[in-house]
Amino acid sequence: MSRRHGVMTLAVLGLLHESPMHGYELRKRLNSMLGAFRAFSYGTLYPCLKELLGNGWIVESDPVQAAPTATATPPALSGRRARIVYQLTAEGKEHFQSLLSESGPTAWEDEQFSVHFAFFARTDAETRLRILEGRRTRLQERLDGVRQSMARTRERLDSYTLELQRHGQESVEREVHWLEGLIEDERQARQGTTTRGGDDDAPSARGRTAASTEDN
């Protein structure tokens, strides 16, 4: 399974865990979650949905049947086919939880980390901490590489390329700082010394702004 495919599977299952959705709504939520520069097309989404259906992790349902009411009125006949609503099955919920529990190197990569972080409220504290620490380690390695590259090539680079490298370095440094704050919060919460007002699943309300997790 490719990394991008794994990202899609986790994101779709996570969104459907919140509520049933049709394909158009799913695509909007995916693009909102991962950002405009990682936009997913229907050509990417629907093959994923087909696979999830085949695995029994989601099912298709009629929009009216998905949310019946006592006063429901049959839809007017028209030439347009009603949108299919996708719902998570019990097996799908179980698989989603197993994906959330993964905390190895794959979960530290840019897109995987973004999706895992989006569902941190449903992730256990130990797994959250492992992912955050792993992500920090990965970025520190990236930061060391950028610094070494700049030291070797500084004399040969034009001012624009050098400025681009500085920008990349600063972006990674900001995210490392952000991660260190989150890690501190998670550790304090585990020790019972958190100051979050009793909400152990939410990031600390210290005015920190999440740094971008995009590649630099």
Structural shape: globular
Strand order of the largest sheet: 1-3-2
Overall SS class: mainly alpha
Largest pleated sheet = 3 strands, antiparallel
Secondary structure tally: strands: 3
The overall pLDDT, averaged over residues, is 80
Structural domain tally: 2
Low-confidence segments, given as residue ranges, are 66-80, 194-199, 205-216
Give the proportion of residues in helices: 55-70%
Number of helices: 8
What separation lies between the terminal Cα atoms?
25 Å
What gyration radius follows from the Cα positions, in whole Å?
Answer: 21 Å
Percent strand equals under 5%
SSE series? HEHHEHEHHHH
Give me the secondary-structure topology.
Blueprint (H helix, E strand, L loop, with lengths): L2 H16 L2 E2 H12 L7 H13 L3 E4 L1 H4 L18 E4 L1 H11 L9 H9 L6 H29 L5 H33 L25
Antiparallel strand pairs: 1-3, 2-3
Helix pairs in contact: 1-3, 1-5, 1-6, 7-8
Textual characterization of the structure:
By secondary structure, the chain is mainly α. It folds into two domains: 80 residues, Winged helix-like DNA-binding domain superfamily/Winged helix DNA-binding domain (Arc Repressor Mutant, subunit A, Orthogonal Bundle); 112 residues. 59% of the residues lie in helices and 5% in strands. It contains eight helices and three strands; from the N terminus they run H-E-H-H-E-H-E-H-H-H-H. A three-stranded antiparallel sheet has the order 1-3-2. Helix 1 packs across helix 5. The chain is globular. The relative contact order is 0.11. The C terminus is likely disordered.
